[in-house]
Specification:
By secondary structure, this protein is an alpha+beta fold. It folds into three domains: about 1-40, no CATH class; about 45-160, Electron Transport, Fmn-binding Protein, Chain A (Pnp Oxidase, Chain A), CATH 2.30.110.10; about 185-220, no CATH class. The protein has helices at about 15-25, 30-40, 45-55, 100-110, 215; strands at about 55-65, 70-75, 80-85, 90-95, 110-120, 125-135, 145-160. The protein has a seven-stranded antiparallel beta sheet, with helices on one face. The longest helix is centred in the N-terminal third of the chain and has 11 residues, at about 30-40. The protein is globular and about 60 Å long. This is Pyridoxamine 5'-phosphate oxidase. InterPro entries: Pyridox_Oxase_N (IPR011576), Split_barrel_FMN-bd (IPR012349). It comes from Methyloceanibacter methanicus.
Length: about 220
């Protein structure tokens, strides 16, 4: 662990020239430096680990080789993100839409940003680092239905102002989260005629003749 920075010191290269220009425009450079020195750290503290252990979802940002960012939602049972140690997180990659945008980006560029939001407590936590994916990770047996395990090697951890986080309560966790007791149900979109002939062999029995894509994605009015 690096030495604790002085009050007006920020982690090296944490703010870019673009950050600085906007901070200077609004007169917040000194505040940014102070908050950086107080809140940004390079390993998971006990409070961070406890916060992550309570969550059942997060958002992850990644970049492809062309510089295009991508943001994805990841959900699971509460506590599905494992805090391996003070500088490592791990989570399962379940069966999805087959695009593998996040894991593909990780395999090529590795840099990721994770945003955990607790809507009930109106709190959030950011984790920045480098990630790797594996189909043979020792943790994969911990997650029934996981295709791969993603490990994130932590570089920066910090909390954010919670004032604009909407207060919401969980009604129920997704019925599609894989579990040991039963197989996960088939999502409606896999029954669309438009994808019937493109489904992998493992999903071939899901092929259907439905045509309402908006309904299949829960977007119909």
């Amino acid at each position: 662990m690096r030495d604790k920075p002085a009050l007006d010191e920020t982690p090296k290269d944490f703010f870019s020239e673009g950050h600085r220009k906007i901070q200077d425009h609004f007169g917040t450079r000194r505040l940014a430096d102070r908050l950086g020195s107080l809140s940004v750290h390079d390993e998971l503290k006990a409070a961070d680990a406890a916060f992550i252990a309570r969550q059942n979802m997060f958002f992850i940002a990644s970049n492809d080789p062309y510089g295009q960012p991508n943001c994805s939602y990841k959900g699971g049972a509460r506590g599905f993100v494992t805090v391996v140690d003070e500088q490592t997180l791990a989570f399962p990659d379940y069966n999805g839409n087959g695009m593998h945008l996040t894991t593909g980006n990780i395999s090529e560029t590795s840099k990721v940003g994770l945003l955990f939001i607790d809507f009930e407590r109106q709190a959030r936590l950011r984790v920045l680092g480098r990630a790797e994916v594996s189909t043979a990770d020792s943790l994969i047996e911990r997650y029934p239905g996981a295709q791969m395990i993603v490990r994130v090697h932590v570089e920066s951890v910090f909390s954010n102002c919670p004032r604009y986080v909407h207060k919401m309560q969980l009604v129920e966790e997704s019925a599609f989260i894989p579990g040991e007791a039963s197989n996960s149900p088939t999502p409606d979109w896999k029954r669309l005629l438009a994808v019937a002939d493109a489904l992998p062999e493992s999903d071939a029995d899901a092929a259907g003749t439905d045509t309402d894509g908006e309904k299949a994605m829960n977007r119909d009015s």
